[in-house]
Amino acid sequence: MTDMRVEFWPAVKKVLLYVLLCSVTFVVCFPLIWALSTSLKPKSEIFAIPPTLIPKAMTLENYEALLTGRQQYYQSGGTAQPSGPTPAQFFTRWFMNSVIVTIGSTIISIVVSTLAAYSLTRFRYWGRTAIPYFSLVGYMVPSIIFVFPLFLMMVRLDLTDSLWSLIFGYVCITLPFCMWLMWAFMRSIPIEIEEAALIDGASRYQVFVNIVLPTALPGIIAASIFSMIVSWNDYLFGRVFINSLDNLTLTVGVMLFFEGTHVDWGLLMAASVLMTLPMAILFMALQRHLVAGFGAGAVKG
Amino acid sequence: MQVSLTRINKRFGSVQVLKDVDLVFPSRKFVTLLGPSGCGKTTLLRMIAGLEDITAGSIRFGEREVNKLAPRDRNIAMVFQSYALYPQMSVRRNLGYGLRVRGTPKADIEEAVGRVARILEIDHLLDRKPAQLSGGQRQRVALGRAMVRKPDIFLMDEPLSNLDAKLRVTMRGELRRFHLDLDATTIYVTHDQLEAMTMSDLIAVMHQGVVQQFGTPAEVYSQPANVFVAGFIGSPPMNFLPGTIDAGRFTFADAKLPLPALPGGVKPAHAAILGVRPQDLIFEGTPAADTLTGTISLVELLGSEKLVEVNLSGQKRMSVQIHADMVVNMGDRVHVKFDPQRVHVFDTESGRSLRAG
User: Fold this and answer.
1) ipTM of the complex
2) Which of A183, A198, A262, B154 could form a disulfide with A132 if both were Cys (CB 3.0 to 4.6 A apart)?
3) Burial class (CB in 10 A: 0-12, 13-18, 19+), A6
4) Smallest Cα distance from A207 to chain B, Å
């Protein structure tokens, strides 16, 4: 009798736990699953009642439309008419814009924050302990506060409606946190390994490149992912700094699918899925380093 | 390569860490900087390595002043307390890094790394990363990295302190053997007087940034220059009794104890400290003018010896080391005696030995 209980209850508990976890996961992931499902449906099936989770007639036409920029025709009063420039035609361009500003701002943020963190942890000068904390305060200020002054600066620099304005804008909001993260990470690298390299015959530059950078790599990866996510997902700066269709980024561009008289849900969902993909892949590929990077920062910072 | 330090001073802000250090480390000798933590020994080593600026004074390797030379131009090697292995590199690359950055041809690096790895018996570990090694293995890699370049001077900063006690004893012997094979001057920093005694040709005992005594292990043990050296060297530590010297005898409480000749000369009723090692004390059957009487308060068996704590009058305690077979009990009343030639006498005011003259 007692044996039965010992074996029975833990098993039931385990099953209940998994049922609970699975349902929570499903609820959290449902919008994503629905988006994926809708993006694969032909137009006729999108509003079908009852709704289908797995498309009956699966199609890639939405993806094809986005990736080839094919002109869309809409049935209008019996004859097919060209619809004028549609968001779908700009999709690949916006995608590339997003890639450019994300990578550009991340490279600048990482180079500057890595060098700054190295300096802050290795050289003695006034304010070197206060700077990292102040930079964190800067990060806590909502980015809407920065938009107006930054916009004015971009106007003066004649950078409005250029990708540079976004690159610099994203550097402004990602650099403080990247620097703090790299600073916390650099502090955990023992100075002795650098001294050992100096004695071994390395120059300061060699020490930095051969010893410090490889050791700081998990931190650099963590900071890069953070910076890329912020830049990739930004809507605010893209909306304010850019005013031509050619220079929009994905987040702002995808919103244009809602404008006009007709919302093509299949296209919109396909665009959303494609927009999510790079970050999802990046995350999966690098999450091991991400944990190591944030972990080290947490312990020593 | 002889290393000469002349009036070396080091200040961190307003804190004076080293005061007028004058030392000459003879070529090919194993010299130890010994002292408690905070005595400045590691700072001094780092100054020799070029990792720390010199506030004042001069460091010379042979005839050449190296004050302004970068660490990599000094042809030194250093073993750090934390080993400081390069975490991203395999053992092979760790060992070869010094040669690689100096532009040594690949084949020569391979050969040198292989040779050192064989000597240190780490050739089977060459493709591992430091994180996959045990403490003792890391220690050997750190040592190998120092040996591979054939430096003129070896600097070691407490290299054994992270090892367990047994391994430490083994490595002590090995370090000493490597030193003899390598033909380089070794400067070794430790706070462990036993390490210093067993490994060194010469010991510089340091305290509060000042060199207290520089001599062979036998000298610092048997002729300590002052109270600090006497108390720091030797285990169990030396007993000290405060008293006065009158007419060639040391007065402590009621006892008048015999003294050796004091060439330094003494004033009448000279305030002094008598130092005597636990090994130099014996129990005497009957009380006499030259014995100290007390009660046994603690007996510790050390193995082949016993350490006996004796409470004397005036709140003073003495430890006496006796053979383990001798039967003593707590509470026994005992009379302690010593050979006057084996005691040390220090001036109370200056702490200096009065036997040195």
Assistant:
1) 0.83
2) A183
3) exposed
4) 10
